[in-house]
Amino acid sequence: MPKVLRRSNHVIHEKTGGKVFPILTEQKYPASYSAAVSAGLAEKAKNARPALSTHIDDMAEYNTVFIVYPAWWYKMPMAVYTFLDEYDLSGKVIYMCVVSSSSGFTGEISQVMKMEPEAQVVRGISVNGEKVFESRAKIEEWIDGVMSNW
Q1: Which of 22, 25, 43, 89 has the least CB density, counted as fewest CB within 10 Å?
Q2: 122-149 burial by CB neighbour count: b if 16+ within 10 A, else e?
Q3: pLDDT, tens digit, 9 for 90 and up, residues 55-93
């Protein structure tokens, strides 16, 4: 998992006490940035659903789901789509968090709403990937606001 995502996940986990579930694929992405970018673009072009190597045993034990992801070619990585295909999140609250260098949210909220029509999908926070290490206070403030509604 890239450092910027680990940082965002860590703050959310620390504030909420929730479990962190990494969405990992069976086929690992290349270690080099440019090769990983190319692999992500190829998946997007094929509208691929890469097989996941991690799975949740009992999604029913969760009421709230935070989906934290990097923007890959202006959208969620295709592995996140696989995750959403695999699990029925009906009745759950889904908070979205994107880490991006420039694009932020670009239609993912409405896409997740279509994929999970019986869930409450909440536009969360967009964190600039280049400033993620400086964004702790911003993320904490967002989480405090989320938790005040629980």
Answers
A1: 22
A2: eebbbbebeebeebeebbeebbeebeee
A3: 999 999 999 999 999 888 888 999 999 999 999 999 999
